[in-house]
Every structure is written in structure tokens, then in C-alpha cells.
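pipeline stage [seq->struct] | target=Calcineurin-like phosphoesterase domain-containing protein | organism=Shouchella lehensis | residues=357
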Amino acid sequence: MLHTQTISLKNQRTHMVSDIHGNLKLFKKLLTNLQYSASDTLILNGDVCEKGQDSLGLIRYIMDLHHTHRVYTTLGNNDAILLHLLKENEQLIPYLERQPYSLIHEMLREQNREWKQFSSIKEIAQFCLDHYQAELEWIQQLPHALESEDFIIIHAGIERTNDWRETSLTNAYAFPSFYEHGHDEEKTVIVGHWPISNYLSREKSHMNPIIDFDRRIICLDGGLQVKSIGQLNALTLLDGLFEATYVDECKQIKEIVHSFSDESKQGTINWPNYLVEKQEKQEHFTLCYSAANKTNYWIKNEYLTYQDEQWQCTTDVSASFLTVKQGDHVSILDDQCSGYDLAKKDGYYGWIPKSCT
């Protein structure tokens, strides 16, 4: 049975955030933009830790907020890595080898140590407990889910069972692609975990929250620290209405001098569906068919490669064109391709002709 906490969200402004992934600087910027105050409720729906460079500072900051503000935090799969540490799971060794940004590394580094100086995970766990008992105990006590009058708030998803609280721990904080699976509860389920762009194989590329009242699902994860175009989303609830806010680390801002729109080209290629079949190559884009997504895409030529006798995308890539108007300001994500730049505006991203800027 999941560890759940019942809360009330009536008659108050509530901010919902997920998947901060150790980015304390951007989290503080988000709270400033929200004009966050002690009269608000703040919900952090998992994955506070890992992938970013300041998980330890972020945890301490949130722990302090819990003392002075109304804050609720759920456990995410990346936070649960610390539970594996306390359970002395030796599989953490290869994880530490491949993941340079981890709370475990940060705790050891603050004590002028590194994991290779220990003979086992057991020794690392004991060392961390000796120096960081408060932080580790705080993570241990995090609930798996919150339930309010209208919402079930859980990091990754719930199972279709007689009682959703019987969802397995693995699915509670690591359910893959929950939005596509759905659920049977009357309440709306609010999740993070799965970057929003992963759901947009046939739609315009974006990282903004998905609010689907028909499916009774809200998805928050803007792909921060996971996707190159990632952002940190907040969804603010007040008087039954939602308002989305985001911050990101895009720095190259340009003003649009010529408007551009092409609604015929949209879609997003995401891992692991990189394999495509080339159909028609043009100067800047190639028409490709994705068998996995059963969809045709215009893929920027620079994002295609021939490997192992197959054509594939080199990474996640937008197949959308971005609509822009003269006077708009956009973030330039990639200006190294021929003819077109990859740009982002209002959480949407796609290709615009270089002549636009």
C-alpha cells in the first residue's frame, strides 16, 4: 500500500511543480516569477534530486521552506535512489560511474571524499548517514502520493486496480508514458516523470503542461536537465482555473523581423524512436517515415545519420515549424544548420527560416 497524504486545496492559490532535478537556481527564479508567498501552497511532485548540479542545496532549501511555508513534496524515482543507497544496493556503483551529477556525489564531495575511496556501497551509506542524517531522513519520510478534494498527485502514475493506493511502488514513481495508459479514477491525476515532448509525436513540439480534463490527467514534466530544450514548469491553481508558467536556461534571444507560419509541418521525434525511412530529400529537410510512430516527418538534414545500415535521427528533434510574428522575441536553440534555426517561443519550439531574424 502506498504511503499517501490527504491535503486540502480549497480557497488557496496552489503552485504545482515537478522534476526540478537539482537545479536550485532555476527553481528560485520560478518562485520569483510566481510571486510565491507564505500564503500559497506549493506542491513538488517528485524528482527533486539528480541530474542537476545542486541537489543538496535544493533539498536544504526545500526543507527550510517546509518549516515556514505550506509545502508538500512527493517521492520521485530519482529521489528514491537515496533509498537504494540506504538499502546498500550494490547496483548503485555503475550508476555513480555514469552519472556525474548525483546527490551522493555532492554529499561526498562536500566532505572532500569520492565514492572510489570506499570499498562498498555499505560504507558509502554509513558515511552519508553519519554526515547527512537530516537530509536522508527527510527523503525517507516523503509520501508517494497526495490526495485532495479533486486531485491525486503522484510522480509517475497509478494502476487500474480496485484501490489506486495499491499501485506498486515502481509504477508510483516510475510509470512510463502514463498519459497514454490512462486510469479509471474520478479524480484528475497529476503527474510528472515523463517529459511532455515524449507525447507529441504527431503534434506541435512543446514542453508546456498537458491539461486533459477528458482523460482526467495533467502532465507537468518540462524535461529540465533531461532534454536540451527542457524547462521547469509550474501550474498555478486558483478558483478552479489553471495558469502555466515556465522558466528555462535559454540565453540567445533574438527579435523576429519577418513573420513566418507553416502549420503543415509538425511532430516530434523522441528517444527511442530514432529509426526512420528516407523518402524524399530536399535542400534543408528530408521527408522520412517513422514505423514506430506510423507518421511522416520533415527532418532537418543535419539531424539524420546513416548507421548500422539504417537511417536514424541523431537525437530528439522537432519536426515542427514554429509560427512567429514580427516583433516576437524567441530563444535560438540551434543556429548551426543550413537555412533554418531551431527556435523556442512560449514553450513551443520548431524551425524558422534564418531570414526571420
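stage status: PASS
auto-comment: The chain has two domains: 4-248, 253-356. The chain is about 20% helix and 30% strand.
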